[in-house]
Design brief:
The complex is a heterodimer of chains A (245) and B (845). Chain A has helices at residues 46-53, 76-86, 102-112, 117-130, 146-158, 176-193, 204-207, 231-244; strands spanning 4-13, 20-30, 35-39, 61-66, 69-70, 87-90, 164-168, 196-200, 212-217, 220-226. With 245 residues, chain A is an alpha/beta fold. Classes of the chains: A alpha/beta (245), B alpha+beta (845). The structure holds adenosine-5'-diphosphate and magnesium ion.
Chain lengths: 245, 845
């Protein structure tokens, strides 16, 4: 069974003359343990799709099923719990809490879930170490580089063992090398930990780490491609795709 | 606790400057509330203490309800009453021994106060112990012999056989010291004991006593005897000692209420500052809060973070406020204590912490802080995760703004109506409503005000002015928050300066009106009621007969009890008094009131009494007099300077004699004949006054000047209050203004990125800061006018009739401060902004 099941998903912003149809009857299903990239030109609705799947925003019509449950009908508290326990978010601007240090930032979802601070922090340390940040745990975000901040954000996204990781242009604010690092961490989350990752990007090199690539245009899915396991081969095929669209 | 505490704590410690400033607001509020209220019990206790020790040594005392003298024949009635073993009558009065008679100079009263006791020698020693350290006790038939207390003997260096001269109603009298009491017997008061007839002669109270002390039979029930006694004696008597200075208690009560009002105002201000701070906090943290929501913080958790933060600040602020309040009270008592000690002859202890005050201060301090953050925390709760990821949409806010502005306008209208009513609590509430209303409409005012001042600015900063104006208009919400923080600081400054102006003016007016005569003769300690030694009417007659004097009028003093409160009664000549001196009326017509006084039992009461006992013109008062209860009609509410602080009523001297048996003058005012030579008249009066050493001659002008000095020094307390109320507001204002500029580092970096020069950026930041402070100052002036009117009302409520002055000076100061702060607040950020490395600014989140 698909872990994410999207049916006739439509999102319209504003009303009357100003109405913007950001998503237009999208249908999509994502299998568990897959790395899916969403690509497309700016303003085509990629972020909107991610937000709706993550329960951050509500659709105008259609439904989003997570593990078979329709989240578009959930109450705010249920949605919050779902986000806390089943989802991990990674943003383009990292969005760490500036007054908390790395360990506290990473531990936050557990702390918010009522886990004792010591336990939460111990677990955060594990994840920071996995991301080569063990020696930076007491640093605050402004004392970390962009790539390091994003790895703290990944630790934060992973700490509550979520089913799904949603990443909106996670490398958009990083240099090429840090971008590659982050992408391979995401890759390993899928390969080594069996998580499901949905990532928005417009960088073909980053998208090439995924198992499957979905192309959006004007709020509609225009292409859906499965990748082979050969990375260079994928990159080549992708380049052709981007140019053709 | 799902991380609220961790987050709250980290936000607080991560923004230290901000935390210190908001907490300071709480500290000041609590300090005023707690400190002032801790001070009053100290004073009141000293007061009570002095009374209890004075009454402590006998089983039972009776005195007249009016505390005035009564006929000594009552003693005989008592003697035969059941259950009483022995009794003795005493005539007791306070007398000032002036410097000229060897009184130890006291810096404040400039004389020594003693208690003169006229004792019935035969019975006195049966009731109370008079243990002597030296010499002998009084004997029947003694005339000018006196027994004095140990401390007085020490102070004045008197030994047995020495002569002690004290003022009397005839002028002065020489007493021979025949005995000195032991130290133990006279720890509390400096007393001079003479025989009853001698005292009656000295005080001009023939056949009168003020108190009867008694000891009861072994096994009788005190309450029964007391009841029985009062029944025999009838209405005009009470058990207990003569309570000198009870008239002050009304003043203290009002003082207490005023302090609460001040304290609550300071707290309300602190509350507003906190409210504003948290509004800024929530606005600033929208993104953080959105992220928290996105990663799974529930609405309740988000609200909890803000509330926990304010709770922490409330606890810290309240704790520090209590300490600071205590310190302030301690400091004031240290400075004021000696003065009070002279007046009340009791030690003023350290500030007292009553449970009520402590609990109320803590509850109000923490409550106000948390309460003020409640609305902002609701706003925080409503932040959606999407706000972490996208800019706020402006459309929705705009519609709500119009709605709020309408609501705000309605509230302001109500507040103005409320202010004009005569109910102080309604006015207080209205002031709060006014603030709320103004906060609601401020966002709508941003554009027009920014536009107006923007044009002005454009003259100096042509391009940057317009740019800055645009910046403000685009984000009216944010501008409004900053402006309202400024508003409150400036408003309080304006109101306080206005208040000081009004009080000062009122003071001068009272002084001029009450002391309109050329000469004043009075005991130096007259200002507080009770127990003064007067002069027989001959003194005034003698003065009137002097060559260079055109007119003389006098004040006579008695005390009474009405409506369960003590009232000082002043006897005036209703015809002459208004000619030579006068009263400042707040109710009733002066002419009619004075003529009513002449024609019947009518009374003019002062504001303090009218307020504390809820009395108005047309009411009837039942006054306790030595002749029983008498009905007096209230014909006016008015005050004179000397008695402004004490619950006072003015009646005619004719009725004072009839009902209170008082015929001696305590204050004499005289006018020079026109064209008479001043030096000659001065000398004439001085010669005439020589025989009455209790009276000091004051040149009215010089007296006024010396009073002005006293007043000015007491104004420093007022200034301390202004300071305590205004400073936190100004601090908050500087803080918010600075932050609002710093917040925009990113935008400014953007400007640099697209090609603005450093100079342009600097000028733009300046222009914006100036516009913001122009906005804040405009609002501050509005609220300031409102507030000064309100404060005046509060003072009027406390019994002082003051005129409203348009707070022009305050407004000028506010404009100056506003401008200065506008420039100061921009200085650092402007430099920073200009220097901002472009890439840094763009990274700043
Ligand atoms: N809150 C909003 N209000 C109005 N329009 C919006 C809002 N959010 C997004 N849009 C519009 O919806 C479309 C899709 O946006 P988005 O999903 O952010 O695109 P992408 O992430 O692919 O760049 C865009 O045209 C954008 O302008
Ligand atoms: Mg996007």
């Amino acid at each position: 069974m698909a872990i994410i099941e999207v049916k006739d998903l439509t999102k319209i912003y504003g009303n009357g003359d100003n109405a913007v149809r950001a998503l237009d009857s999208i249908n999509l299903s994502v299998e568990e343990g897959k790395f899916v990239a969403v690509m497309g030109p700016s303003g085509c609705g990629k972020s909107t799709l991610l937000h709706l799947i993550g329960g951050l925003d509500r659709p105008t019509s259609g439904s989003v099923m997570i593990e078979g449950k329709d989240i578009s009908k959930m109450k705010d508290d249920q949605l919050t719990e779902l986000r806390r326990r089943k989802m991990g978010f990674i943003f383009q601007f990292f969005n760490l809490i500036p007054v908390l240090n790395a360990a506290e930032n990473a531990a936050l979802p557990l702390i918010l879930d009522g886990v004792k601070q010591e336990r939460a922090k111990a677990k955060a340390m594990e994840w920071l170490q996995k991301n080569q940040l063990g020696d930076r745990s007491t640093h605050r975000p402004d004392e970390l580089s962009g790539g390091q901040q994003q790895r703290v954000a990944i630790a934060r996204a992973m700490i509550s063992d979520p089913l799904i990781i949603l990443a909106d242009e996670p490398t958009g604010n990083l240099d090429t090398r840090s971008g590659d690092e982050i992408a391979s961490v995401l890759r390993s989350l899928v390969s080594d930990w069996g998580r499901t990752v949905l990532m928005v990007t417009h960088d073909p090199r980053i998208a090439a780490y995924a198992d499957r690539i979905i192309f959006l245009k004007d709020g509609k899915i225009v292409d859906d491609t499965l990748m082979s396991s050969d990375a260079p081969e994928n990159a080549r095929r992708l380049k052709e795709k981007v140019e053709s669209l | 606790m799902k991380g609220q505490f961790l987050l709250a704590y980290r936000y607080l410690t991560g923004r230290k400057q901000r935390m210190v400033l908001t907490t300071l607001a709480v500290v000041f509020g609590v300090a005023v509330l707690f400190g002032m209220n801790a001070m009053l019990p100290g004073i009141i206790t000293a007061f009570r203490h002095s009374m209890i020790t004075a009454a402590g040594k006998v089983d039972l005392s009776i005195s007249s309800k009016s505390n005035g003298p009564f006929n000594q024949s009552v003693m005989d009635t008592i003697q035969n009453a059941e259950g009483i073993s022995v009794s003795t009558g005493i005539l007791q009065r306070n007398v000032q021994i002036p410097e000229s008679l060897g009184g130890t100079t006291d810096p404040i009263t400039r004389s020594a106060s003693i208690t003169l006791n006229g004792l019935d020698v035969e019975t006195a020693r049966l009731v109370r112990r008079y243990q002597l350290s030296e010499g002998r006790f009084l004997e029947p038939g003694d005339t000018d012999q006196a027994v004095i207390s140990y401390s007085l003997a020490q102070k004045m260096g008197k030994k047995v056989g020495d002569t002690l001269t004290i003022p009397s109603s005839q002028g002065k009298v020489d007493l021979i010291v025949v005995g000195i009491l032991t130290q133990f017997e006279s720890t509390t008061v400096d007393e001079v004991d003479v025989t009853l007839p001698t005292a009656q002669k000295i005080l001009g109270l023939e056949g009168q006593i003020t108190v009867i002390d008694m000891l009861l039979d072994g096994r009788v029930d005190k309450a029964t005897v007391e009841k029985n006694l009062l029944q025999i004696l009838g209405d005009g008597f009470k058990t207990g000692q003569v309570e000198l200075g009870n008239e002050l208690s009304a003043t203290l009560k009002i003082g207490e209420r005023t302090m609460w009002l001040f304290g609550i105002m300071a707290l309300a201000m602190a509350g507003f500052i906190i409210y504003n701070t948290f509004r800024t906090v929530v606005a600033e943290r929208r993104r953080d809060l959105g992220v928290l929501r996105a990663i799974g913080a529930s609405r309740k958790t988000v609200m909890g973070i803000i509330l926990t933060e304010s709770l922490l600040q409330g606890i810290i602020g309240t704790f520090l406020g209590l300490i600071m309040g205590y310190a302030i009270a301690y400091g004031i008592l240290q400075n004021l204590g000696p003065m009070i000690e002279v007046f009340m002859r009791a030690q003023v202890g350290p500030p007292e912490i009553t449970n009520t005050n402590l609990v109320a201060s803590i509850l109000l301090g923490i409550g106000f802080t948390v309460g003020s953050s409640y609305l902002p925390s609701r706003t925080a709760m409503k932040i959606t995760p999407m706000e972490a990821l996208r800019p706020v949409t402006l459309v929705v806010e705009r519609r709500r703004r119009v709605l709020r502005a309408v609501l705000g306008t309605v509230l302001i209208a109500f507040a103005i109506i409320g202010l004009l009513t005569n109910e102080i609590w309604v006015a207080t509430f209205s002031t709060l409503i006014f603030l709320v209303g103004l906060v609601l409409i401020t966002p709508m005012l941003v554009k027009p005000i920014a536009h107006t001042f923007g044009r002005l600015l454009a003259v100096i900063y042509a391009r940057e002015g317009t740019l800055a104006q645009g910046n403000l208009s685009r984000q009216p919400g944010r501008a409004a928050v900053t402006a309202s923080a400024m508003m409150i600081g400036l408003a309080v400054t304006i109101a306080m300066i206005g208040l000081v102006t009004s009080v000062f003016d009122g003071f001068i007016r009272y002084l001029d009106r009450s002391l309109g005569s050329d000469y004043l003769l009075m005991p130096s300690s007259l200002v507080l009621g009770g127990g003064n030694l007067g002069a027989a009417p001959e003194f005034a007659q003698r003065l009137e007969s002097l060559e260079g004097i055109s007119g003389v009028t006098t004040l006579r003093l008695a005390s009474t009890q009405t409506k369960g409160a003590a009232l000082q009664v002043i006897g005036i000549d209703p015809q002459k008094y208004p000619e030579i001196s006068g009263l400042e009326f707040s109710q009733g017509d002066p002419q009619q009131s004075f003529s009513a006084l002449g024609s019947g039992r009518s009374i003019i009461v002062n504001g303090i009494f009218a307020t504390s006992s809820a009395v108005k013109v047309g009411d009837t008062l039942l006054l306790e007099t030595p002749e029983g209860e008498k009905e007096y009609q209230v014909v006016g509410v008015a005050m004179d300077y000397l008695n402004a602080k004490i619950a006072t009523g003015y009646i005619s001297q004719a009725f004072l004699e009839k009902d209170f048996h008082i015929t001696t003058d305590v204050l004499i005012m005289a006018n020079r004949k026109e064209g008479a030579d001043q030096t000659t008249v001065d000398a004439e009066i001085k010669a005439a006054a020589k025989d009455y050493p209790a009276f000091t001659l004051f040149d009215a002008e010089a007296f006024k000047n010396s009073q002005m000095e006293v007043f000015q020094s007491s104004m420093s307390m007022m200034n301390a209050l202004v300071f305590m109320l205004a400073i936190p507001g100004l601090i908050a204002m500087a803080n918010t203004l600075g932050i609002s500029i710093i917040e925009r580092t990113r935008e400014i970096g953007m400007l640099r990125a697209v090609g603005s020069t450093q100079k342009q950026v600097k000028r733009m930041v300046f222009a914006e800061s100036l516009l913001l402070s122009a906005l804040g100052t405009s609002l501050g002036i509005l609220v300031g006018i409102f507030l000064s009117y309100y404060l005046l009302k509060a003072l009027n409520y406390a019994g002082f009739t003051l005129n409203f002055y348009f707070p022009a000076l305050g407004i000028l100061v506010a404009i100056a401060v506003g401008l200065l702060f506008g420039i100061l607040a921009a200085m650092v950020p402007a430099r920073q902004a200009a220097r901002t490395v472009i890439v840094e600014a763009l990274r700043y989140e």
